[in-house]
Design goal:
Elements: H1 21-34, H2 42-55, E1 60-63, H3 66-76, E2 82-85, H4 91-98, E3 103-106, H5 118-124, E4 129-135, H6 144-154, E5 157-161, E6 169-170, E7 173-174, E8 181-185, E9 198-202, H7 208-215, H8 236-247, H9 249-267, E10 273-274, E11 282-283, E12 289-293, H10 301-310, H11 341-349, E13 350-353, H12 360-377
Helix pairs in contact: 1-8, 2-8, 3-4, 3-7, 9-12
The chain binds pyridoxal-5'-phosphate.
Residues 65-67, 89-90, 92-93, 135, 161, 163-164, 185, 187, 198 line the site of pyridoxal-5'-phosphate.
Length: 378
Amino acid sequence: MATSVPPSAGFPVTVSMLPPLERFVTELQDIWDSHRLTNAGPKVQAFESALRDRLGTSHCLTFCNGGAALLAGIAALKLEGEVVTTPFTFPGTTHCLALNRLTPVFADVDPVTYNLDPAAIEAAITPRASAILAVHVFGNPCDVEAIEEIACRRGLKVIYDGAHAFGVRVRGKNLADYGDVQMFSFNATKLLTTGEGGCLVYKDATLEDDLRRLRRWGMLEEGDVTMPGANAMLSEIHAALGICNLEQLEEERRQRQQVVAAYREHLAGLRGVELPSEPSEVEPALTYFVVRITPEFGCSRDALLQRLRDQGVLARRYFYPLCSRLPCYSHLPGAEPGATPQAVRIAEEVISLPLYGGLGSAGAEQVCQIIATAQADR
Ligand SMILES: *Cc1c(COP(=O)(O)O)cnc(C)c1O
């Protein structure tokens, strides 16, 4: 049974999934027996193999976190110039471009999926563009077919930040099938977690050596250093946690599905609360449950957030402010006032409600009651 029991007081935005401790100890026993802690040992290899099976991909390497995986994935593509990307994401997405000395160019998003709008991508492409970096925000799939078509026609690489999208399928096809490279995060706030961790899936098998070198100080074997690299390896202990958590992912998903159903039921009638879209062809991520508080609600998103916090519900503004509003990126193309009106509005209205298996439908109902009372009292 998944043990996502909430801490005693209130409702955090999420509670990390953990395996039964006895199960984890059996994995640790192997590590204690072998004294092998890192350098892509048996646990990392077993976890990578399980990830390949799960994602239906032949190429997948783990990293010490999702950010490191994305940094390495971008570096391995050897890009130059500009990369068209979304402003509505976690700052880490944009940082991975900047740290690779690429220029982010922000394009607007779709008002329903919150993901890059293909028409806006097209309009943002200049002769300096070398790639598109799209994010499946909250696990909502990007318009992957349209992005692939644009990239193909304009000669661009496609990078996906799939931090929220582990296991998401569209029309039966895993999202891991798309993009030249794609990152999944196993951070403690994500559905599948190793504490810190992440992986990169990639299409071109010839990237593997560079990715391994980027992950281990530029070397494949000790002493053979051919390029600069960092240490971005996942440890055996983290991989062991991933192996255990994969075993109970379905159970956690089943519980989260009930929480989401309860949210949808109890928020459905509330004026000014826009529920996330649920396209029938998508098997959802269940990483976040994000609603929009529109002006019809009667009090501001931030006032509601405060009210929730006062009552122990630690809802969050995922994602606010836009990356294009951060002082380090506000000079970039697409950051001008009025350039991305949909993204601006979405960032002002979103609120991420607690989502974890242990919340249960009763917990979700309690959160909904606080929201309903906030509206009635305003
Ligand atoms: C969590 C997250 C990351 C970073 O992943 P880490 O594993 O924490 O490094 C990057 N992008 C997005 C959109 C995220 O939510």
